[in-house]
Amino acid sequence: MVPCSLHLTFLKVLVLSANSFLGEIPMSLGHLHHLQMLDLNNNTLQGKIPALANCSKLTRLSMAWNQLTGEIPVDLPSRLEALQLGANNLTGTVPASLGNITTLKRFSFAVNNIEGSIPAEVANLQGLQVLYVDLNKMLGPFPQPILNLSNLVFLSIASNNFSGVIPSSVGTSLPNLQQFGIGRNLFQEHVPSSLTNAS
Hints:
The chain is mainly β and 199 residues long. It contains one helix and 14 strands; from the N terminus they run ββββββββββββαββ. It has one domain: Leucine-rich repeat, LRR (right-handed beta-alpha superhelix), CATH 3.80.10.10.
């Protein structure tokens, strides 16, 4: 279990990554109201992601490479800039409430068991630069909300069950792309010539 003391109420940065912590993440972390960065990457943590909505100053939340279960919380801190949840055992869908975190610049939930598609509300994340959703169970056509994220630099939706055609406007809608991954899906027809606009 991750150690936690409610007496550290003014803690701003908590980095416990790359250890061998077991068990569940303490719910009491949600009482650290001054926390700005929480990094629990690369452990063996289990259970659900605790309620952190009261950590209103949190800008970076990293819990990748653990064994977390349950769904992506609907009440995440509203000032997040980076949210890394990859390589866990998360299920369910991407919550529409994610679109309320308009400060978000980096979002990764690759290598989980997330289903459904990208909710329309994600189009509100105009500052998003990195989006990784690889290796999940997502399906449906190419997620249209992504086309509104003109600041995206890295985008990968590879190894899912997306199907249909790649929108012809993908290159003009996402002109800043440096990495575009769509491998191991079910897309058909033509590669859009607009990709040449992502110079």
